[in-house]
Amino acid sequence: MKLLEERIRKDGVIKPGNVLKVDSFLNHQMDVELFDAMGAEFKRLFAENPINKILTIEASGIGIACVVAQHFHVPVVFAKKSQSINLDGESYITKVESFTHKRTYDVIVSKKYLNPEDHILIIDDFLANGCAVNGLIDLIRSAGATVEGVGIAIEKGFQEGGRLIREKGIHVESLAIVESMNDETGEIVFRS
Ligand code: 5GP
Fold first, then answer.
1. Which residues form a coiled coil (predicted)?
2. Domains of the chain, residue spans
3. Cα 57 to the chain's mean position, in Å?
4. pLDDT tens digit sequence for 67-89
């Protein structure tokens, strides 16, 4: 998506350790009009899929998922991160290793909000090693629901997450795929 690529080039900041900071329009301050254009694009890309729910993970996926959901006219569920879970049997639980914080979280969704008849689109801001998305897939499968696809704002194509998830036969669409980025020169190359 050209609009997103241009915005990353203009306002993205490449940090050491393969981290792309997009705080000025996506992760801290949010450009909701850009999110709206992203929502329209995801709607076009997943037009054939019978999606009745969007699943994301807190915190940075929530804003995007909410705007995307307006294009699909479906509710958003966000998986909650926690370090101490009460195993009360009321929630689906999985573990996710955080790329940015280098920690492992328990991630939960109430059983009330994931059902076997659900057809779910996963939305997240970044795809790096795929831990967050794999955790969400795990939760959906625990509920016996169907993964219709994965919609990502920015995929770091030089990390393995995208390849691993596509190899499972899952429909992944990323609006911008970073092929390489250099924190010393500031150079960023997108997959065409
Ligand atoms: P993964 O689980 O695929 O390794 O990483 C995806 C998650 O880590 C995303 O939910 C995102 O919040 C965070 N993340 C991974 N890489 C980056 C990055 O380069 N920049 C930012 N801002 N977040 C990232």
1. none
2. 2-190
3. 7
4. 999 999 999 999 999 866 666 78
Q: Does domain 2-190 have CATH number 3.40.630.30?
A: no
Best substitution site from 24, 81, 100, 139 to test ligand 1's pocket, by max atoms within 8 Å of Cβ? 100
Q: Decide if 159 contacts 128 (C-beta within 8 A).
A: yes
Rounded to 5 degrees, φ, ψ at 4 are -70, -40
DSSP string, 123-137: EEEEESSSHHHHHHH
Ligand 1: which of 126, 134, 159, 164 to mutate, judged by most atoms within 8 Å of the beta carbon? 126
Q: Residues enclosing ligand 1, CB less than 6 A? A: 19-22, 27, 60, 99-100, 124-132, 156, 161
Ligand 1 midpoint to CA 119 (Å)? 24
pLDDT (tens digit, 9 = 90+) per residue, 150-184?
Answer: 999 999 999 999 999 999 999 999 999 999 999 99
Strands annotated E in 22-157: 53-57, 76-82, 91-97, 104-110, 119-127, 146-156
Annotated binding residue 69? no
Please check the confidence at residue 120 and state whether its pLDDT lies above 90: yes
Asked if the interface predicted TM-score (ipTM) of this complex is over 0.90, the answer is yes
Residues of the chain with pLDDT > 90: what percent? 91
